[in-house]
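Case study 2.
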Amino acid sequence: MHATTGSTNADLLRDAPGLADGSVVVTLDQTAGRGRLDRSWVAPAGQTLAASVLVRAGLEPRDRGWLPLVAGAAVRDAVAEVLAGRAPEQGQPDEPVRSTGQRVLVKWPNDVLVDGRKVSGVLCQVASDGSVVVGVGVNTTIPVEALPTPTATSLLVAGATEPAAVLADTVLADLWTGLQDAVSGLAAGGAAAEAVRSHVRAVCGTVGQQVRLELPDGSTVEADATGVDDDGRITIRDRSGVPRGVAVGGRHPPALCMTA
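Prediction:
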């Protein structure tokens, strides 16, 4: 674990050619983290986990496109395990009781939401040798009054009581195992790969929601999210009833907001 670093992804991208599959860079003090679409990731020192994992598996091109999605699902599973049986710090007496599985979901392609608010984001980048760096940020012990946006949350706010270092160790261990298992399943193909994709679909809270897509040309599309296809694209049906798939890849990927 690094005491502090600018970016765990940048560190691992730099060192990737000399490192083994599954190598990890981790810190609780990341000062220059970035998210998808080059957005900054606010990470108060000692209150957030930043971790990057190196993936070297020989995946088919389509399966490489699933890496952001399976990474998001692996983080989701790790967070759900931490929060099992916990009640949110700011919960209201009249709020419906929801299971952990209902509370913790993936927003396509790879944000993790707890009670509808973002607790984690994932950023995948290709290293110079062709390996993939999977970067993860998780808000661990940020108190509610210090959260960076009204749409953010932390494990503390969601009900966790352990110190940040303990939460980070737990989440990272489960994330690493879940990611390795998912990548192995994709590489194996057949029923194993389909089981991985089915799990991603099952924990994707975007499916069934009304969404707004902000496209690279500045236009927006209001639509219903209907599923995740075999290429990892979110499938939508727009207001005219026309179905289509939207990919996460590309130099200027669309942004997606849930509206319901």
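The chain has six helices and eleven strands.
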